């Protein structure tokens, strides 16, 4: 069950990253985040209130972990959406997925013992990320190197966020999701208000897309939170990091993106590494 939910999270995250990156080419990333997160927070509050969970959240250590997850998520998404808007999605997404190495290493430090294949898989994923990013950091790169650096920053923050969410979900999945979402809403809305000069407002026609974006991210986060509560964080986090495959396929289908041969091989290494880690 945990493996299936982690894979579902990867499909949902890959779809939301493609959608968010596409919308961020027309709207500012902070606008996309602010509106989509407010809408998803309202959906989450409605679900928790309707199921009766809102009034009986347990006491425990989930609050601090959830706030940390919300802060790092907001920073990671701002970096990721900006990178997706500036650079090639098929390059940015695999780099950002390298954040899986943070919870993988943390799980090992806390006593989890994946097999030799898992360790080999993590190493292959790291090599693949270097291979994807390398050509984009060269002086002859066609896209801004800032997109790669932003993707690397997103990877680090995502890794911390995934680990923090997993730890908080051990006490309460519902509480962790709510506190994380509310924290991220406060941060991205504040950033949107502070940087509103020089940008047009979000149009009514954008709301359905932003609602879909927020819902996809919320559903993916919920699937991962439940999966991490019933499986090893080191393994679940790697399975959930398969989302670049979805983003790459969607970018190829709808944006006509193409990668170099080296980058195609490198993306495959990232994905093979993730599978090996799960095995």
TrEMBL record:
The chain crosses the membrane at residues 32-50, 62-84, 91-110, 116-135, 147-166, 178-195, 207-226, 232-250, 262-278. Residues 5-132, 146-277 form the EamA domain. Belongs to the EamA transporter family. It is a multi-pass membrane protein. It comes from Kineococcus aurantiacus. Its main location: membrane. It is found in: Membrane. One of its GO terms (cellular component) is membrane. This is Drug/metabolite transporter (DMT)-like permease. Keywords: Membrane, Transmembrane, Transmembrane helix. It comes from the Bacteria.
């Amino acid at each position: 069950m945990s493996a299936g939910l982690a894979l579902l999270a990867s499909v949902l995250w890959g779809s939301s990253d493609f959608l968010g990156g596409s919308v961020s080419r027309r709207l500012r990333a902070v606008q996309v985040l602010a509106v989509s997160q407010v809408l998803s927070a309202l959906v989450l509050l409605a679900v928790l209130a309707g199921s009766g969970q809102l009034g009986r959240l347990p006491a425990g250590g989930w609050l601090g972990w959830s706030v940390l997850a919300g802060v790092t998520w907001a920073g990671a998404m701002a970096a990721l959406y900006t990178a997706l808007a500036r650079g090639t999605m098929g390059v940015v997404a695999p780099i950002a997925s390298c954040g899986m190495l943070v919870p993988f290493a943390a799980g090992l430090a806390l006593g989890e013992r994946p097999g030799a294949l898992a360790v080999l898989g993590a190493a292959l994923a790291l090599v693949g990320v270097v291979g994807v990013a390398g050509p984009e950091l060269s002086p002859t790169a066609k896209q801004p190197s800032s997109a790669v650096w932003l993707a690397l920053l997103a990877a680090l923050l995502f890794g911390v966020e995934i680990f923090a969410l997993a730890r908080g979900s051990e006490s309460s999945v519902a509480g962790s999701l709510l506190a994380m979402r509310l924290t991220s809403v406060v941060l991205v809305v504040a950033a949107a208000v502070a940087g509103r000069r020089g940008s047009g407002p979000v149009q009514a026609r954008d709301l359905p897309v932003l609602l879909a974006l927020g819902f996809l991210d919320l559903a993916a986060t919920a699937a991962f939170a439940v999966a991490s509560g019933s499986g090893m964080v080191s393994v679940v986090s790697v399975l959930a990091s398969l989302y670049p495959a979805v983003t790459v396929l969607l970018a190829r289908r709808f944006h006509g993106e193409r990668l170099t041969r080296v980058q195609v091989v490198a993306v495959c290494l990232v994905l093979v590494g993730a599978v090996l880690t799960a095995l």
